[in-house]
Amino acid sequence: MRPVTDSNAIRRGVQLCLEQYLASVHVTLPYLVCLSKYSGIPIGNLGEDPLGRVFDVHFTQFLSKNKCVSWASLDPFPDLGTESSGLVHQDDDESTICILRNKGVYRSICVELDVRRLLVAALFNSEDSAIFGKRANQLSDKHTDFGGGLFLGDETSCSIAVAIFRQLLQKYLKDLSLDGDEEDSPAAELLEHVYRIVASPNTLLHDPTFHRCLQKLMRDVFLQLLSSLQTFGCLVVYGSFSRIVVCTKKVGLHAAKEYIDFILSTLKQQDNTQHLHIRPNRVWSHYIFMDEYNYGGVEFQMREEDEISDEEFGKDYVTTIGSMLFVPTVVGHWNMKEYLTEDVSRAYFQTIIGRFSREAFKKQMTLLSECANSVEKEEEISSEILKFVKRQVSVHFTNDLTRMLSELIREGGDASSFPTLPGSHLPLSNPALEFTKTIMSILELDEDVQHESHVLRRSALTQLGIREYSQSTIFRNPCAEFILTDLFCTECVETRDLNLCIGGVTITENDDGSSTAKKTEWLCDECDNPYDANEIEWRLIDLIQKESVQFQLQDLRCTKTGKVARGCLSKESECSAPWKPDIPNNKLVKRIKILQNLARFHGLNNLLESCTGLLHNYTES
Fold it and tell me: How confident is the model at residue 508 (pLDDT cuts 50, 70, 90)?
């Protein structure tokens, strides 16, 4: 090894060593000492995940106290006495996803709510969780239905573990109250991380069935929360375990704030939601929502007075609430825009969709100022805005779209003009047609201008020389979807589901100017903190291997009666009908191809090798 002679490199290395040492002495060591005192575990035994180790020890103590059998397995699956148990005893990641989407255009104030501690609320406030508390001491009764009708199959074996887990969380809540509800106390951190610990396969007591049981309880409380919001008069636009977007049906920002504050204070007093931590995050007006990856509108952003530019349209519509200034800003998060051909098409897209929200917002603010926020004239204002939007689509957008399409047709293009991205899965060949379909798919979300949008669509297709009802005019999302569940962000302490086909960033790193290395990062939606790409790659390899095993172990069914095949060699069922698999071959091949494309794009060599081998086997068969 050659000695390092660069003085800058030596200075940088010494600086990094000093920073690591100071961080260990002043931050990490006091934190570990605090955890060690709380849990009674020596500092040297806390390991790489101190909170996970504390949870494992506490849960084992509670299980032993209730005379339950426990295990500690370094493998992601419980030690059931067989080597192949891990291949078949796994969660179905798609079945655990619970998401509500209501597509549309919402002209009133919409508020995005962050939801935390859903698991704690599910265990303490669900009516079902009371069943487990009453049955924690009924271990000796062989005829007791521990599931209480909640769980089926192998999940019934975890009902007692859920009851004991509830006792453990009750201890953490009691310790938190004794600490004065301090957010940096060990009990508070354990409550924040508890779902991450349960979902992580790296914990010693991880059990996929136990994880699935808790998710069922979380789903019940989540649906109760959505029902409560609708009872208050809100319209739920989007809902997931960590984020909910509601339409308040209020025009003014002040009225919307008072309305949301009332809802949150009321939810805090209800039994089934009192342990939830819900806080408003972002505020929108004229909100256009297709899905969680394609949305936009006028966002009210908190700014300082010196941060407001004179060129912004929102400088004339600044709203003051207390000491905070809210500046309306046109914001768009449209992933489908990235699949258009050139920067010109994307700029045209941003222009039309931005105006669809901005111009209507400006008209609304003008009408509100004229009537001095009179409640009696809200219906009149709504009708005026509707007329304005209809004219905007039928007149202004028609002229603009005709001009834009003429330029795109003149530039031409073919399949090679479209970018190759991780989510690319459609055979795109006509840039002007794809631009038209993308624009119209968003304008048609507004139910009030369906007729005007239909006329505009017909005019655009006529200009392109394509029949209106042709199969090629049907819009399909150009981005595929591959969800990886329960990814934990170390910065904002949230566990989220991530669509890997969206948001991956490849960073080029130079090493002393002599070599170049590529590093792939997926960023958290909330804090932009990067996830561990290496962990994501190995989880994907395990996932695709699991799906391959499930495909090989699946049942064959009669195409006529739907009965499962009993034999292994017969080519036809008893009624002479052919067999069909539960999982079609093309479905598995499609998912493998998505992962192969993703691995090739981001340079995930291990994943690419696994997908190439599997794809070779399944396409040949």
Answer: low
With respect to residue 213, please indicate whether it lies within any of the assigned structural domains. Answer: no
How many Å is the maximal CA-CA distance in the chain? 82
Contact 582, 554 (CB under 8 A): yes
Sequence-separated (6 or more) residues with CB below 8 Å from residue 598: 422, 482, 500, 501, 504, 604, 607
Distances in Å between the Cα of 418 and the Cα atoms of 346, 436, 503 are: 12, 15, 18
CA distance 490 to 251: 37
Q: Domain boundary residue among 454, 478, 502?
A: 478
275 with 284: CB under 8 angstroms? Answer: no
Structure confidence by residue, pLDDT tens digits, 242-298: 899 999 988 888 889 999 999 999 988 887 778 888 899 899 999 999 988 999 999
In tens, the pLDDT along 355-372 reads: 898 888 888 888 887 775
Average pLDDT score over the chain: 80
Residue 422 structure tokens:
């991780």
Nearest 5°: CA angle at 275, between 272 and 276? 90
Residues 468 and 538 in one domain: no
Q: Which amino acid is at 420?
A: T
* Position 238 in a domain: no
Is 588 within the bounds of a domain?
Answer: yes
- Do 510 and 503 form a contact (C-beta atoms < 8 A)? no
Residue 466 has phi, psi (to 5 degrees) of: -120, 135
Q: How many CA atoms lie within 13 A of 13 on its CB side?
A: 7
In whole angstroms, what is the distance from residue 462 CA to residue 467 CA?
Answer: 7
pLDDT, tens only, 146-187: 334 455 555 666 778 888 888 888 888 888 888 776 777 888
Which residues form the domain of 599? 532-621
Residue 357 lies in a domain: yes
